[in-house]
Amino acid sequence: MIKSINSKRAALELSIGTIVILVLGITMLIMGLVVTRSIMCGALGLTDEVSGKANSELNTLFQSTEGEVVCIGQGGDPVKLVPGKLNVIHCSVNAPESAKYDFEVTSAGTSISSLKEETIKSWLTTNKLSIDVAPGDKDSKKPIRIDIPENAPEGNVNFIMTVKKDGNLLITKDLDFEISRVGFVRSATC
Q1: DSSP letter string over 110-130?
Q2: Considering the chain, what is the average pLDDT of its residues?
């Protein structure tokens, strides 16, 4: 009888110990997932700062080109556009005097053989902008908004944009972009 009581007590202690270990293990697993998610989202969030620094990039372009109008995508490596969300192209105007500026996308091209110019132009939700700009106005303008469908193929696209000042052609910009998807990790965790 004593042996039976001792074995029941041992079984109870073993089951309580197992429950405590399982609870601690699950708690540590959840904490690990939360910490990993916050680290991953924090690291991936650094890429979001790129859009936040668009104005500083435009200012850098102004300093290097000394042009009256500069736009994201006009020089260097193509700027990434993400399918499935609205992409905004920023331009900045360094107006010497008050004037009306007209931005218009006149043509579109691509390195993707399955896409035609009409298809790319249909993605443009805004392809014209007419705005009065005063000297010293440093706010970025948004002449192009592109809503790329989720199933769009990846590759390079370019837009030819004309800029008119008070009705007269000022400059033609060749803007280069790359359609590139957001990674699975980022879309799943953040």
Answers
A1: ES-TT--HHHHHHTEEE-EEE
A2: 81
